[in-house]
Amino acid sequence: MPTYTSGNGAFTPATNQDNYTVDSQTAGVFGKVVAIGWGGSGTSSVGYRTRWVRPTTIGSSTFTALTAGFHQPNYVTFGSRFGTFLTAPVLPADPAGNLWANDWNVQGGVGLIVMPLANPWFFVNGILTGQISCRNTKGVDASLSSYEGTVEE
Predict the structure, then answer these.
(1) Per residue in 68-123, pLDDT tens?
(2) Are 134 and 151 in contact (CB under 8 A)?
(3) Is the backbone peptide bond immediately before 95 cis, with ω within 30 degrees of 0?
(4) How far apart are the first and last CA of the chain?
């Protein structure tokens, strides 16, 4: 199955907007998140908390797509997409519903999780909202953090 990676680098997060949303976009789209990553380039110690969660209400309105890096040279059109919505998804209160949450330090903090083959995060248009959100609950310093994910369709 083809894969692609996308995310926000040297990014300024907000606690009321996703760092990125994985969106199934149209009927019939089925995919799975197979890896997530985060990192910081701060020069002072600042605590961050980032969570990946299924929204209770999907993001809507204008969608700003993030650049994708495609892993197969002859397959560059995907049904799903990474980006942000003008109207952010509504998330359950932390820690409810977290697929993963992590407290980390923007001063050199870094992480990468590759999902086990038997337990990726599936998303299907029209089921379980068809979206997965990556959002900070704390930590909003300007241009000091990066977030990424890899999807397989």
Answers:
(1) 999 988 887 889 999 999 999 999 999 999 999 999 999 988 999 999 877 899 99
(2) no
(3) yes
(4) 6
Per DSSP (E only), the strands in the chain are 3-11, 20-23, 30-40, 47-53, 60-65, 68-70, 81-87, 98-105, 110-114, 121-124, 131-138, 145-152
Residues 79 and 3: their CA atoms lie apart, in Å, by 11
Tokens linked to 57: 């209400």
Euclidean distance between CA atoms 120 and 109, whole angstroms: 24
Tell me how far apart the alpha carbons of residues 55 and 53 are, in angstroms, rounded to a whole number.
6
pTM above 0.90, yes or no: yes
Burial class (CB in 10 A: 0-12, 13-18, 19+), 105: middle
Cβ(136)–Cβ(48) under 8 Å?
yes
Assess contact for 105 and 47: CB atoms under 8 A: yes
Residues near 127 by beta carbon (within 8 Å), at least 6 away in sequence: none
